[in-house]
Amino acid sequence: MQRMKFLAIALAAFTAVGCNRNDRDNVNNPNNTTENRGTSGVADNRISDADRDFVNDLAIDGMAEVELGRLAVERAASPDVKNFGQMMIDDHTKAGDKLKAVASKHNITVPMALDNKHVDMKNDLAKANGAEFDRKYMDQMVKGHEEVVNKLESRVNGDGAPEKSDNAVTMDINQWAADSHPVVKGHLERAKTIEKGLSKR
Asked: How far is CA 44 from CA 37, 103, 141, in A?
């Protein structure tokens, strides 16, 4: 009889501990959701070096497109080149703002200035005018957009959807890449067409 009483008390105590534990879990996670959790059931919001590097590189590439686009609007002789430059300003400003929003959401630092490679590129283009500028600028646009398309495609499936990830940070960045990919690919095709037109003159 004594043993039965002891077992009953122990069971009651165990149940109480379990209830308290569930209460604590509900306080920490009031919606009791497993969203943004990996296969282990633990939320995965870690920021990888690959994600930081991608955001850094694409932010700089976007800033460069905007600044070089401004040069094109000022210095180009061809109306097509001027229009392309304005498209770079408009489209890459929008894409850059969206990337900054993703970075801010996950506390990723975004560079505020161009790196040495793009500063040198800008300085070189700033020395040219007219037809010479047109050729140099469009050559850079083809090469630069080929590089950016390759970077974006590393995070996009063949059907244009973002690569899946259990990591919420990576998934948001991949979604941005998938949204940006068709726009940048369109830029590349347009740049190639303009460059070919210039070579025939």
From this structure: 6, 16, 37
